[in-house]
Amino acid sequence: MRMWVSFYISTMRQIFFFSFVVFITAILAGPILTGIILSLTDPLVYQISDIFDGLKYGVPLGILLCVPSWLLLSIAIRLVAKPGMSVIRVKFFACLAAAPLIILPFGILNFNELFNKFFWTSSVFQFLSYYLITLISIWSYKLKLPMVQTEV
User: Fold this and answer.
1) Which of the chain's termini has less CB crowding within 10 Å, N or C?
2) What's this model's pTM, rounded to 2 decimal places?
3) How far is Cα 150 from Cα 75, in angstroms, rounded to an integer?
């Protein structure tokens, strides 16, 4: 019984830290990548200098709005991570779970706009840039799941 409790606590600590680092990376790098993509695709409307505005407003707001996504990703990874399971499998599931969780902060901020088709077409670059950074973060950062040792 004691080994399962220690497995659970050490696993949750690792998963919370892993999810936190993934979302902080997305919060910091997402506005930069979004700004670069938007300034390249529509240079008449978006300028490179808009990236700094995105960071100035997007990072503090992103930290507040990403807390539910961070917690839900942590819970989802914990539900999947079983003793002896491959880290690659867990990371693959995290990539699948991250897709709707990337939209969640934007949905919290713009709930009324979620049902407007123009919201989705105008926000596709934001979603894709944040998701791309989240995928890169999931596969770049180390997720160490402890192995359960059998008692002798």
Assistant:
1) C
2) 0.82
3) 25
